[in-house]
Amino acid sequence: MNCPCCSGKIYEECCKPYHTGEKNAPTAEALMRSRFSAFAIPNGDYLMETTLPGKRKLHNKKDLQEWGEINEWTKLEIVQIPALNHVEFKAYYTDQDGISQLHHEFSVFQKMHDRWYYVSGNFLD
């Protein structure tokens, strides 16, 4: 299957090794792509594990899993990577009512102990 992150690679050679813990995402962009794929599959455990430990209390694994399940994640577009730890992206999905949606975010990531983590994001119009 093609990877949901829109890299053009097959899932087994793209995001799957990150989802299974075989590898860690080497860049903030790779982590962003793997997190999008984790919503598309869905994989709430991976989404929690790749959130900065100090920020996990702000998230709920059940809610992350459910958001992945109730929506059809159709496309990821990386808009820009202005710094090693910043990624601006657009995530396209169809919601549970069949309405096309766009999630546009400027995300901040942090590398800690040779692993990248999602820290936070600002929603953009």
Give me the side-by-side strand order of the main sheet.
1-2-3-4
Order of helices and strands: HHHHEEEE
Mean pLDDT: 96
**Fraction in beta strands:** 35-45%
The total of helices stands at 4
Topology diagram in text:
Blueprint lengths: L15 H4 L8 H13 L3 H6 L11 H10 L1 E12 L2 E9 L5 E13 L2 E10 L1
Antiparallel strand pairs: 1-2, 2-3, 3-4
What does this 3D model show about the protein?
With 125 residues, the protein is an alpha+beta fold. It is built from four helices and four strands. The chain has helices at 16-19, 28-40, 44-49, 61-70; strands at residues 72-83, 86-94, 100-112, 115-124. The chain has a four-stranded antiparallel beta sheet with strand order 1-2-3-4, with helices on one face. Strand 2 and strand 3 form a beta hairpin. The protein starts with 15 loop residues before the first helix and ends with a strand. The mean pLDDT is 96.
List keywords for this structure.
single chain; 125 residues; alpha+beta; 4 strands
Short description:
The chain has 125 residues and is α+β, with helices and mostly antiparallel strands.
